[in-house]
Write a structure and sequence with these properties.
Layout: E1 9-11, E2 16-18, H1 22-31, E3 37-40, E4 43-46, E5 53-55, E6 58-60, E7 65-68, E8 71-74, E9 81-83, E10 86-88, E11 93-96, E12 99-102, E13 108-111, E14 114-117, E15 121-124, E16 127-130, E17 136-139, E18 142-145, E19 149-152, E20 155-158
Antiparallel strand pairs: 1-2, 3-4, 5-6, 7-8, 9-10, 11-12, 13-14, 15-16, 17-18, 19-20
Amino acid sequence: MLPRKMLKLVLFSCVLIPMSNTFAFQRNICENFAGTKMCCRGRIVIRKGRNSQCCGVHSYDPSMSICCGGQIKLRHGKDSMCCGGNVYNPSLSMCCDGQIRKRQGPNSACCGTQHYKHASSLCCWGVVRSKQGRHSMCCGTNVYKSDLYMCCNGKIKAKTGKYTECY
């Protein structure tokens, strides 16, 4: 037994345990719950289904809901994902820098909070730009044809004769 001074008790809704063995003891107590109850972050909660999971101090059924940003949200299909605190279906939408955007086909991509078609555009430092042919590349926020030009320290320069490197 620990001396009275060293015995610090922590009160959880689930358990009253000594501080030195908090994790191991709490885990054992929580694993011993059977049937309709489970332990989420030190609280006894009612299971929401056979495969219940914790979302903060609440339980939820992952076949019906999803935990987004610490909140339980209804799923939008079996493949639902979180975008910040919101739910979206990745086959219909995508998450662009915390904002849900509608997909524009299978070649959709994100550029910051914007979406674009990867086949016809580029994302140049957070700005969507139209491609200028097969050899399009970014130079800062601008697009150039890499077969005719080069990017030198953020500036587009023409390739001339044998000079195809920045100088």
